[in-house]
Specification:
There is one protein chain. This protein has three domains: 65 residues, Arc Repressor Mutant, subunit A; 59 residues, no CATH class; 165 residues, Ribonuclease H-like superfamily/Ribonuclease H (Nucleotidyltransferase, domain 5). The protein contains 13 helices and five strands. The protein has a five-stranded mixed sheet with strand order 3-2-1-4-5. A hairpin with a 5-residue loop joins β2 and β3. It is globular, with a radius of gyration of 24 Å. The protein starts with a helix and ends with a helix.
Length: 364
């Protein structure tokens, strides 16, 4: 089987997209492996399926393309959910998860479990996901930030949101952070036969090959990302990365948004800032990294390129990250920030009031 460049790219997108069901990603891998020249029995062994199953998905792909990977409906009856449960799901979705859940944001599975636990009414996560799609709700992007205890919270929020909504004329705003301990996992490597105790579970079918630390800077004006992988996360590596990130903008005022990690305020970093007065640091409130736009990009690269990827070494992982950044920058667009500082602060006050009410009620 021969694949065109577009067909291969489409299949790889299914493999690497965290929103694609695992069974669909496996079916895409089957086609890719067979197109690479592997025998069907080798493909079956890698995918953990039977030889007839390999034939099935190769045939489906040849006749229907990637659309053939989706399971056909089996005529199951439509899930009947009371109107009041539907309303409760929508209301909860639009609010920060209750503090006792320990969640930062809702997932469809967590919502289904919470509804079952609090109402004694079972619903499937498929129902929740469909309801969100129908209503245009994306809880992973809204209503779910952590309450900060930073005494300078309001001032720092206003400072950073001001950079997003009205950046200084002619200046560059960079959103900078590090994604630590990114793992190189080989999910196609079979486990060696090992004797397991009856009480133990074999929950992993992959091999770890090490980790890397991804340093990244997002230009909030253009959406372009400059990134580097480094073996460790410390002040020295951060400063080396920072120098490269600001180098293309040496003739401009540069505003850098960072969090409160000690690696961002080492003596060497402070000395470098004194020697480079065009570079200005803006610190996010403590415990509020969600306001840093690079965190949104980290979520995207994780879902689309890292989470479902198969990496036989750290070098392979780093190459994948570099390729993804190049792909992103080829068609980069800035994130659109719409919330004003006043709206954010008003929401924080509402969340704090709800938490206080919950604590007071529990104390009675």
């Amino acid at each position: 089987m021969e694949l065109t460049a577009d067909e291969r790219a489409e299949l790889l997108s299914l493999v690497n997209d965290g929103d694609v069901p695992a069974n669909v990603a496996t079916r895409a891998r089957i086609v890719l492996w067979y197109a690479e020249g592997l025998q069907k029995k080798e493909v079956a062994a890698r995918a953990g399926v039977s030889r007839p199953t390999v034939d099935l998905w190769l045939s489906r792909y040849e006749s229907k393309g990637v659309g053939g990977f989706v399971d056909l409906p089996r005529g199951a009856p439509r899930e009947q959910v009371p109107a009041w449960i539907r309303g409760r799901v929508l209301a909860l979705t639009r609010a920060t998860p209750p503090v006792e859940t320990g969640l930062t944001h809702w997932s469809s599975r967590e919502m289904a479990k919470y509804i079952a636990r609090t109402t004694r009414t079972s619903i499937s996560w498929h129902y929740v996901a469909k309801l969100w799609r129908d209503e245009g709700l994306k809880p992973c992007r809204q209503g779910t930030f952590k309450i900060s205890r930073d005494p300078d919270f309001a001032e720092r929020v206003a400072d950073i949101v001001g950079l997003y909504l009205a950046p200084p004329e002619g200046a560059v705003v960079l959103s900078v952070d590090e994604k630590t301990q990114v793992q190189a996992l080989d999910r196609t490597q079979p486990l060696l036969p090992i004797a397991f105790h009856a009480s133990e579970k074999r929950t992993h079918d992959y091999v770890r090959h090490g980790t890397t630390n991804l340093f990244a800077a997002l230009n909030t004006g253009t959406g372009e990302v400059f990134g580097e992988c480094r073996p460790s996360k410390d002040g020295e590596n951060f400063l080396a990365f920072l120098k490269k990130a600001v180098a293309p903008h040496a003739d401009k005022e540069i505003h850098v948004i960072v969090d409160n990690l000690s690696t961002h305020t080492t003596p060497d970093v402070k000395k470098w800032l004194e020697k480079n007065p065009r570079v200005h640091f803006h610190f996010t409130p403590k415990g509020s990294s969600w306001i840093n736009q690079i965190e949104t990009w980290f979520g995207i690269i994780t879902r689309q390129s890292i989470r479902r990827g198969t990496f036989s070494s750290v070098k392979v992982l780093i190459r994948q990250i570099k390729d993804y950044i190049a792909h992103w920058n080829a068609d980069a667009e800035p994130f659109v920030w719409t919330a004003t500082a006043g709206e954010i602060l008003a929401k924080v006050k509402l969340v704090q009031a709800n938490v206080k009410k919950l604590v007071d009620n529990n104390g009675k």
